Amino acid sequence: MTHQPFEIQVIVAATIGGIVILNAAILWFMPRLTRPDLYFAVTVPPGFPDEPDGKSILRRYRQELLLVSLVALTVFVAGIALLGIGFGPAGPLIQTAAGFMAFYRARNRVLPHAVQPTMIREAELQPYARIIPGGWIAASGPFVLLALCAGYLWIHGSTPARGIIYSLTMTISLVGLTVLLYGLAHWVRPVYSGGPERARELQFRRTVAAVILGAEYYTTIQSSWLLLVPPHQGLISLGLFPFAPIFALVVILVLARLGQGGSGLASTRKSSMPSAPPVGDRTADRYWKLGVFYFNPDDSAIFVEKRFGLGYSLNFARPTTWGIMALLLIAPLVAVLGHVTQLLPKRV
Amino acid sequence: MLRIDLASRVPVYEQIANGLRAELVSGKFSPGEKLPTVRTLAINLGVHHNTVAEAYRQLANEGWLELKRHRGAIIRERDHPEAGPDAMERFTRPLRELVAKGLADGLSPSSLAREMIETARGLEERTAP
Question: What is the pTM assigned to this prediction?
Answer without folding.
Answer: 0.81
